[in-house]
Write the structure tokens for this entry.
Amino acid sequence: MIQNDFVIHDVKFLKPDGEVDTANIFVTGDKISAITHDDEVTAEKIIDGRNKFATPGFVNAHTHASMTLLRSYSDDKALMDWLQKDIWPIEDKMTRHDIYIGAKLAAVEMIRSGTTAFADMYGPCMDEVAKVVDESGLRGILSQGLIGFADGDKKLASNIDLYKNFHGAADGRITIMFGPHAIYTCPPDYLRKVATEAGKLGAEIHMHMNETQTEIDDCVKNYGKRPFEVVAETGLFDTRTLAAHCVWLSDDEIKIIRDKKIRVAHNPGSNMKLASGICPVTKLLREGVTVALGTDGAASNNNLDMLEEIRLAALLAKVDTLDPLTVPASQALQMATEFGAAAVGLKNVGRLEVGYQADIVLWNMRGVDWQPNYNPASLLVYSANSAAADTVIVDGKILMQNRELKTLDEEKIISEFTACANRLTGK
Amino acid sequence: MIQNDFVIHDVKFLKPDGEVDTANIFVTGDKISAITHDDEVTAEKIIDGRNKFATPGFVNAHTHASMTLLRSYSDDKALMDWLQKDIWPIEDKMTRHDIYIGAKLAAVEMIRSGTTAFADMYGPCMDEVAKVVDESGLRGILSQGLIGFADGDKKLASNIDLYKNFHGAADGRITIMFGPHAIYTCPPDYLRKVATEAGKLGAEIHMHMNETQTEIDDCVKNYGKRPFEVVAETGLFDTRTLAAHCVWLSDDEIKIIRDKKIRVAHNPGSNMKLASGICPVTKLLREGVTVALGTDGAASNNNLDMLEEIRLAALLAKVDTLDPLTVPASQALQMATEFGAAAVGLKNVGRLEVGYQADIVLWNMRGVDWQPNYNPASLLVYSANSAAADTVIVDGKILMQNRELKTLDEEKIISEFTACANRLTGK
């Protein structure tokens, strides 16, 4: 008999090669300890896997969790109107507790939609988000958004503190990156400083890159070069970098991404809603780039539902290239799982395989949108919605079962969250 | 006291102008009989509207309901491989009962996701779909798919019979259109015949138009003109026409659409998945064209979830035009409701307004993805998913309440459906 904490019995599951198999998945401690094909299993705790589909938990490779507070506060606006008139003034008013409760509602939303890890850039007060990671049981890859103007050095010092205090915390579920915000908010000299400090600690980088055409035009005007070229010269990319958006890329920039092993977080929902443009995913994947998926913040998406990003990634690449064969279902899922984990620097995460961390989602396949049930991976990507997320497991710990949350008090969180949002917006 | 069958009390609802108001909605018989702002209402049957958002039921302006049987049977294939090797051979084997049960599962799926009317083109045996409309309580706008080759005349005769037997049936919930399939399956002479027969009966037309670039190229090669030009000459457009897809349009074709008052069913999900291209929605709307939304069949979508099409329509138009202001949330909802009803020829449907048919959906706003709750219309379009559809009403009759189906036996339908699908595919 296999020593284990629990077994998911007789479950269809997504194999690392994208195929679907039926097996028993044993979890011991925080790891997948065995995958067997026996008809019967003996174990103390058995989770019935029939009519369920097991996938690795989704990795949200780019978000700003606390921005749930601004969900649908301002939609259908021009980008700069939206940011300058509506979003920034509210963000300026956010307190420490707002950051906490915004991220906590985000945690509920992520667990409910099958996300087990998220790369968050926000700040200040990222220690509040760390607290949410600790309490929720999720995995968090946190960075402080660094703006190089005014108190840029103070912010950098704060990101260093964040690293020292929280990298590896919550039983290793928290890791810390450095978050230089973007080329238009971080001059090259500042990026050099960030590169130096991150390099000393061995920390990775999370940065917005090439999101809009305006950003490129301004960069060329200011520095005579495109963003990836300017940033490459600062040495920042010699520290492992996660680049969010990457919508407008020259061929030379794609070469930099490939050669510097920069990982890309593609945010199709946000890029579509803000009319930023389309990330050339097919081209990047062909160059062997690790392309992950992110939701971006809830003010520009407007949710944290990775299943929507998976579907959008698959659909948008097809219509963009007019090639129905690009980004098939299995690859879209890989972007949200294995590639996601690699993109945010997680080891042994993102595959249902023995020895990997037990970050598992069980999808309920009883709904009509799962019928007929020939190809669960394809049904998940092209037909189901995230309300089918039934059970969510991180590091072998059950965060949700039967859609019941185990670590968070949803009603209490919504009530506190509503009070904060109303105070911030005066609504 | 207002005489009524029931009242939805204290509910936020979508007004025809796209704004949101809070009121009581009275339903008498099959109509909305009053909308009041009194705090208290006296009525025999009261539906609690608090924490609910009422919208008109969605109109799916282009689908092939029975194709649920082929959902995810063949995904991520090139279009012609998909159609010729996988889809058509299975469709050839479909029996009368298959058509029925496929449409019946579709009815469950549509009710569960807030759709109250659907324009269906399939066949033969559209009388089986009519039976499903009758039994489910939905509204169906049915047409037989007419292929002009071989037994084209027999099919046309069958569409005439369908009209004579079912137009206005099920208390008026069934209307019949003529369904010439497409320019590549219906030669101009055949379209002339269809136009004549439809004209005699005063029936409207539902036809696939300009879905792929190949279709345009072939048409130009065969007839020296583009599809809308060829079809216009047959007189078909003098009968009111619903044109599905309209992806590749010349400016002259847009003029024909505008001048002939052709209504367009935009199918963003299907067009993206099959890599067909992007319908120029912004341009069409600017010309005053009635643009509705459709899911297409579940073999190419892969679901019948109109909320996804609404979101895709809003997102895709923005990234296509690089204009974040185009197709705002209220307009996307209008495309799925008022414009949908107009597109499929329904009178007094698609608005929450006194005198209109009581086709109403109540969305549950308790989920985290509805928080904070500033703008329900925006939250519905950009954040929620269709699992929030709580109550669905058609012609004043409740088809679902509290997510419990009132007219259909879901478990029995899934079981019969699975047997049919397995027999057809040999799986």
Remarks:
- Chain B has two domains: 6-56+358-405, 58-343.
- Chain B touches chain A through 68 residues (CB under 8 Å).
